[in-house]
Write a structure and sequence with these properties.
This protein is an alpha+beta fold. It has six helices and eight strands; from the N terminus they run αααβαββββββααβ. Helix 4 crosses helix 5 (231-239). It comes from bioreactor metagenome. The chain crosses the membrane at residues 43-64.
Length: 285
Amino acid sequence: MNQNNDYQAEQTSFSDHTLEAAERDTGAGRPDSSAKGYGKRGFAGKFAVFCICLLFGFLVAMQFKSVKLSVDTVQNNQLMRAEELQTLLNKERQKNEQLYGEILQYKDDLSKYREQALTSGDYAEVLAQQLIRSELVAGMTDVEGPGITVTMTDSQIQITTEYLNDPNYYIIHDTDILSVVNELRDAGAEAIAINGERLIATSEIRCAGSIVSVNNNRYAAPYVITAIGDPDALAGALQMRGGVVDQLAPWGIGVGIEKNELIQIKGYTGGITFKYATPTEGSEN
């Protein structure tokens, strides 16, 4: 019996020693420093990934916002452009109605003149009235009224790039002046002058070297264009989005606009010669 007890005690002692040895070999019972270090590195890596994802999401959101703002800006510009075109269309319709009314009035006046000439035989009075109107339409008489003054000046931009270093881009050309004059005429200008030169049906506006010829008289910048008509309509025609002022702005061409309550424009004083044009045979006027 005693032998069995001694044998069991020896077995128990051997097992305890074996377990202690195994613990020493495997490091059981002590904190694992490598596992602790791996936990710290894993947390830092996850946090870095989180920050990158957060930054990427922020950039994507900003990009979407930027695209949306760009689309909204384009749509707003198109809407404003459509409103401006609609306003111009309404003005053109009103202008057409006004011109149609003037035609009817002229027909009535012509009938009255004919009746007066036939009943009274006073042709001199009828001819005098027609002459006054013809001179007014032809630009031969001095006129005055409300309107605007447009001052065009050459660019003051210092040329710094080789791509656009041609100085001709930065000075006023005849086409620039023609664009302004055409817009004024379309907006209802009744009389126009450039540097005091009254424009009539036969007036020319063309480049002559570095200057511009008007009615065969040469002028250099600045060019002062005066026009009689509705000041708001004339100024609006030049300042409309994408109009003459916007087209010349990138080159630094100055286009100053001033509204005036009273403008005086002298009549045309040059000569007019019709060498080939003759009245149509059988014409009553």
